UniProtKB/TrEMBL annotation, chain A:
One of its GO terms (biological process) is mitochondrion organization. InterPro entries: Glutathione-S-Trfase_C_sf, Metaxin_GST, Mito_Protein_Transport_Metaxin, Sam37/metaxin_N. Belongs to the metaxin family. GO terms for cellular component: SAM complex. Keywords: Membrane, Mitochondrion, Mitochondrion outer membrane, Protein transport, Transmembrane, Transmembrane helix, Transport. The lineage of its organism: Eukaryota, Fungi, Dikarya, Ascomycota, Pezizomycotina. PANTHER family: FAILED AXON CONNECTIONS-RELATED (PTHR12289:SF41), METAXIN RELATED (PTHR12289). This is Mitochondrial outer membrane transport complex Sam37/metaxin N-terminal domain-containing protein. It comes from Capronia coronata CBS 617.96. Residues 214-271 form the Metaxin glutathione S-transferase domain. Its main location: mitochondrion. It is found in: Mitochondrion outer membrane. The chain crosses the membrane at residues 366-386. Residues 21-146 form the Mitochondrial outer membrane transport complex Sam37/metaxin N-terminal domain.
UniProtKB/TrEMBL annotation, chain B:
Residues 96-192 form the Thioredoxin-like fold domain. Residues 243-308 form the Metaxin glutathione S-transferase domain. Residues 1-38 are annotated as: Disordered. Pfam families: GST_C_6, GST_N_4. GO terms for cellular component: SAM complex. This is Mitochondrial outer membrane protein. It comes from the Eukaryota. One of its GO terms (biological process) is mitochondrion organization.
Length: 415, 316
């Protein structure tokens, strides 16, 4: 059985635009024989019932997320496909800690660099996303990803990198901060300020955040080839994913790349060698997506397979979903956010989760179809009525029966 | 006849107890003298006067100072989430981030007083914050928000903690993995929310049903939003599983030591972990779905770590 790894598509010469996907690619390449898996740049989270990428498909079952994929491969292969098997107890503890460190600190930094910073987003990331996404996702998904990235990184207090937001916030500023003592106020940047001296201030804060992320990694790596022990482990793959995305892209505001190159040359060297070793030569987007014919399959180190064409109903579904999700109340109700308590059963955890999500999704599709057909029917009937092609059966006006005043009425001629 | 007269006089004597009024009643047609009319106009009628002679009916005690007026200006005050029972003045807070800093200040031997408060009172919108002792009795010192407490402690003569090599990685384990599981455990698990979070955070704030309902909704929604930042779908079992691994790793890191990283005194890292373990293991809280509690109880050294800190710093 060939395992299928579905990921966000290639960008910036790397196989994927997402760090978790890059990490998963790295892990599978290190772990599995090359004919045992296929890499599919589907760039659509709806491809699996889990609604998340990277997603690994093994026959009917799906697993999503780097962490879960590592665990799943370990479970199905009886420990054979497990890079962490050589770790001792304390290294395993370090592995868990470092994994959560990379995920919780690395992602906000990437969000700042690729999405929040207006220059980088408008100049690079949006184009890169546009190349790998199919219509209608290419219209909605980049904004969606950016909004999510802003939310994830807002605790770092650097939203001012985003010039659009700085303009919007300017008006609210005076009113909101009136009650807050001066010493506690956070200055909000304006566009002019951003271009001027506040850029320096931002740089200081950015440098602090960057060193908070890189320094522990440098300490843990030291002069070794791998983070834990003398063999490769899952942490190395995860670090490769995050660091590759920090090191490779040529961005208009390249502060992250510069910092890595200038201040942490060891780490920079490590990631450069890793990228060449793991992902091979720079990835050509058009060739991978089979938009361009080429005899390149021989020189590709990764087992690429082009994503299948989407059927019309799938496209319609995507259009419908992208229309519904921004509607305030309906949208939040429509998106699946919580899978609730597990139902008792003999399914294992992966299957249980997948089954629950699939069921929620099916139910939601039924609702959407009912809603859509109700709207369509209402519209059609309304139009027909308006045009007069359809008429409501009107009751014939019955002549009003006059009140009877009896004999006196008759006398006055009222009867 | 006699009886009737008697009754009449009785009525008269009762009805016109005031001789002045009785006189005017007897001579209704006689024009009033100007002097008499002014007195009757300006002087109070007798019954009203009687009432006023009894004044003041009650003397209220002095108003208390407004709540924002500093009362213990010469002491450091830490504003945290805390139960309002008077005997629990120094008890550990029931909110992890408050308890972390409460414990941290205690570890560093900074004298302070705690005061129960809520997020709406904080200048940054989040508890805890610290109001340092002020030397000038007329001006209170400016508050220290959460992010600057560590720096403030150093400025007060506390020793600066060295950062250990793997501390950042393990801190991420507490702040990210354990916190996510905690958010689910307390807020999103329906049974636990009703049993624990409702009395602590909701019922203590207001007695109005509408306010309570909306506050509960806000709390749970905030927790959900926070979890959705890092998870596509909130899966409680997955969060618990990761938390179990995190506790396992933290237990291995602690080993047989008394405190983390081989220190002789507890530091910030111990405070961060204690903030969660204390609340998860607190016997007073009645968890209905005790997944995290059970997971934590399997690690004996973490349970002992919590007990050690509880004995050493919160035994009063």
């Amino acid at each position: 059985m060939v395992l299928e790894l579905h990921i966000w598509g290639p960008a910036f010469d790397l196989p994927s635009i997402d760090a978790q996907c890059l990490a998963a690619v790295c892990y599978l390449r290190k772990c599995l024989p090359v004919d045992a898996w296929a890499l599919i740049p589907s760039s659509d989270p709806a491809v699996s019932p889990l609604g998340e990428l990277p997603a690994l498909r093994d026959g009917d079952s799906w697993v999503a997320g780097f962490d879960n994929i590592v665990r799943y491969l370990r479970d199905v292969s009886d420990g054979e496909w497990n890079l962490d098997r050589h770790l001792d107890e304390s290294q395993r503890a370090d592995c868990t800690a470092l994994t959560s460190f990379l995920e919780s600190r690395g992602q906000p930094l990437l969000d700042l660099c690729l999405y929040v910073s207006s220059d980088n987003y408008l100049g690079s990331t949006r184009q890169a996303l546009g190349e790998i996404l199919a219509w209608p996702n290419s219209w909605t998904v980049p904004h969606h990803l950016r909004a999510k990235a802003k939310k994830r990184s807002e605790h770092l207090g650097l939203s001012s990198l985003d010039v659009d937001a700085a303009q919007e916030d300017k008006s609210e500023d005076a009113r909101l901060t009136a009650h807050i003592p001066k010493s506690l106020r956070k200055p909000r940047q304006t566009v002019s300020g951003l271009l001027g001296r506040n850029m320096q201030k931002n740089r200081f804060r950015l440098d602090a955040i960057i060193s908070d992320f890189f320094e522990p990694l440098v300490e843990m790596l030291g002069d070794k080839e791998f983070f834990l022990g003398d063999k490769e482990s899952s942490v190395d793959c995860l670090a490769t994913g995050y660091l590759a995305l920090m090191q490779c892209p040529e961005l208009p505001q390249g502060w992250l790349k510069e910092a890595l190159r200038n201040k942490y040359p060891n780490l920079d060297h490590w990631i450069r060698t890793r990228v060449v070793e793991v992902y091979g030569a720079p990835v050509d987007v058009a060739m991978v997506l089979h938009q361009k014919e080429g005899s390149a399959s021989a020189e590709m180190v990764l087992p690429w397979r082009s994503p299948g064409k989407r059927s019309l109903p799938q496209v319609m579904q995507a259009v419908l979903e992208s229309c519904i999700s921004p509607i305030p109340v309906l949208g939040s109700w429509f998106s699946i956010s919580d899978i609730g308590r597990p139902r008792p059963g003999n399914l294992d955890r992966h299957q249980a989760r997948q089954a629950t999500l699939a069921q929620l999704r099916r139910r939601r599709e039924v609702y959407v179809q009912v809603l859509a057909s109700t709207c369509a029917v209402t519209g059609l009937v309304g139009w027909l009525l308006y045009k007069g092609m359809l008429q409501l059966p009107r009751r014939a006006p019955t002549p009003p029966r006059g009140r009877s005043f009896g004999e006196a009425g008759a006398l006055f001629g009222l009867g | 006849m006699d009886d009737h007269d008697h009754e009449n006089t009785d009525i008269n004597s009762n009805g016109f107890a005031n001789p002045k009024t009785a006189r005017t009643a007897r001579t209704p047609n006689k024009p009033k003298s100007p002097e008499l009319s002014t007195t009757s106009w300006w002087s109070l009628p007798h019954p009203v006067k009687c009432v006023f002679e009894k004044f003041p009916l009650i003397t209220y005690p002095e108003n208390e100072l407004p709540q924002r007026a500093p009362r213990h200006q010469n002491e450091n005050i830490l504003y945290i989430f805390q139960t309002l029972e008077p005997r629990a003045r120094d008890a550990p807070s029931f909110n992890p981030s408050c308890l972390k800093w409460q414990a941290y200040l205690k570890f560093h031997g900074i004298p302070f007083r705690t005061r129960a408060s809520n997020n709406h009172a904080s200048p940054t919108g989040a508890l805890p914050f610290l109001l340092p002792a002020s030397n000038d009795p007329h001006r209170s010192a400016s508050p220290v928000p959460t992010a600057r407490i560590a720096r403030w402690v150093v400025s007060q003569g506390g020793k600066e903690e060295a950062i250990h090599i793997r501390q950042d990685a393990y801190t991420a384990l507490i702040d990210h993995v354990l916190r996510s599981a905690w958010l689910y455990y307390l807020y999103l698990d329906e049974d636990n929310f009703q049993a624990v979070a409702w009395p602590l955070y909701v019922a203590s704030t207001s007695s109005s049903y509408a306010v309570r309902t909306s506050l509960a909704y806000q709390l749970r929604n905030a927790a959900r939003e926070e979890l959705l930042k890092t998870n596509t779908v909130i899966d409680g079992q997955a969060l618990y599983r990761r938390a179990e691994e995190a506790l396992q790793s933290l237990s291995i890191l602690l080993g047989d030591e008394n405190f983390y990283f081989g220190q002789t005194t507890p530091g910030l890292f111990d405070a961060s972990l204690f903030a969660y373990t204390q609340i998860i293991l607190d016997e007073k809280l009645d968890w209905k779905q005790p997944a995290l509690k059970l997971a934590l109880q399997t690690h004996k050294n973490l349970v002992q770590h919590r007990a050690r800190l509880m004995r050493g710093f919160f035994s009063a």
